[in-house]
Amino acid sequence: MGRLKxxxxxxxxxxxxxxxxxxxxxxxxxxxxxxxxIRAVKKTRQGWGGPTPGSVICSAHFxxxxxxxxxxxxxxxxxxxxxxxxSRKRRTLEPDAIPTVFSVxxxxxSPKKRQKTAIPKRKPVCIFHIGP
Length: 132
Hints:
Elements: E1 21-23, H1 31-42, E2 56-58, H2 74-78
Antiparallel strand pairs: 1-2
Subcellular location: Nucleus, Nucleoplasm
Pfam families: THAP (PF05485)
GO molecular function: DNA-binding transcription factor activity; sequence-specific DNA binding; zinc ion binding
């Protein structure tokens, strides 16, 4: 399986120290919220067939109000590396968070364009042997 990336149309975000990925809410536990996330994705991807178990939406598509407020606990302080740089900490979504941010400016990076490395076609070579 390849690395996960956001399913929002036009977004190619993968997890980084600034971007977190979130799985779809469970259809069994919260069918209404599950369908709301599906409708949000369909706004950006016409004909999308729905989420798979690996489908995720990145943190760039949620407003600040969708995240739980961070508190500095003793556990958070322990996560600070010995050089004083905090370790990566995933932002936690509120239980009722809905992806509502779809502007291009909120997408952290664009896809890498593949260069075509086509091999030129060779002309067929015909060898005829005439004679004895």
